Amino acid sequence: MTQEDYQLFENMYLAKINRVDIRFVRYLYKTINWDVRLIGIKGARGVGKTTLLLQRIKLAYKKTDTVFYVSLDNLWFQSHSLPELADWLYLRGIRHLFLDEVHKYPNWAIVIKNLYDTYDDLNIVYTGSSMLEIDHSRADLSRRQTLYTMQGLSFREYLAINKIKDVQPLPLGQLFEEHQTAAMDICKDISVTKHFSNYLKEGYYPFHIEAGSDYLARLDETAKLVIESDMPAVENVSYATIQKTKQLLMVVAGNVPLVPNISKLSAQLETTRDMCLKMLYTLDRAGLVLLLTRNVKDYKHLVNPEKIFLGNTNLMYALGSRVNEGTLRETFFLNQLSLGHEVCSPAQGDFLVDQKYLFEMGGKNKTFEQIKDVEDSFLAIDGIEIGSHNRIPLWMFGLLY
Hints:
Blueprint: H1 3-19, H2 28-31, E1 38-43, H3 49-60, E2 67-71, H4 82-91, E3 96-100, H5 108-118, E4 123-129, E5 146-150, H6 155-161, H7 172-187, H8 192-202, H9 208-211, H10 215-234, H11 239-253, H12 262-268, H13 273-285, E6 289-292, E7 307-310, H14 313-318, H15 325-337, E8 343-344, E9 351-353, E10 357-362, E11 377-381, E12 391-393
Parallel strand pairs: 1-4, 1-5, 2-3, 3-4, 10-11, 11-12
Antiparallel strand pairs: 6-7, 8-9, 9-10
Helix pairs in contact: 10-11, 11-13, 12-13
């Protein structure tokens, strides 16, 4: 590590800090305990992990001489090491190290563990792909770190980032009790139906603002990059497996919601049943698909999913799916409830949440006929702005975080 190397890194880092916008900060920022010495943030490509790191630096540190940001996909690391950089920075007073894209660095977990153990006053925050099985890595980081997962924009955040309306989060239990009052307050100022429709098509990823009319094309490329770039960095996979995974994603995209016959699907992909399941669960961890299972999902024991959806509604438009209202509703609901809740496939109804609450999706004429005798049952209704009792507008499930 030389002064010239450092200057190059610093110039790039300071330029990023100067450009980052702090007027809108993602939901995760306030939930993170920033005092912990080792913090991990994982999430799908494009959800805003890098921006969150840069916002933290800009908001929390008046001086930049004790903090440093670097992305580990930088070509400098082809001929140099992270410990070399960390040692150089530490000797010059850096005590807060923000590491982006750790999954691009070989044996990253062991290296970070060693840095944590070597420098007892060094604070590390890192980001990585949502595919990382961090708790099961060879280096036991679980005793040292606090790990967070970052999801794409909720509908509530979409309204805020686009300066439409600021709304406070409404957790599920509170939503059950207060949805009518909250909806009346929100709907008096804005046309919720119009904005919700826009969100479903192009509002899940923060980069929709800068991408403009190119958003769906960029999202299509992002999905390919996840498989072609992020997946090989996390999994030991061959070129053939990468190609089959892309093929599998397109099969799902063309048939959502897919009720899979794994034997037929694996035969179509010319692979084994076990490999087909592994690819499906990898796509699920990557945020590209959502697997709905009968019981709580377990990535150690891969079981046949009951249904397969794309990871969010924007992907339905970007990957050329048949976008029908029913699938759009279910995809949105499953995506939003997947953060902080367990969602399973019930014997009756559409979704069972937290092993207690039963939900049925539908349009404005939907009735309780199918779940009328079930305790703790609810209708998530599309096409209405204000609900009543256990009939809750679908869009309000976008206020959870």
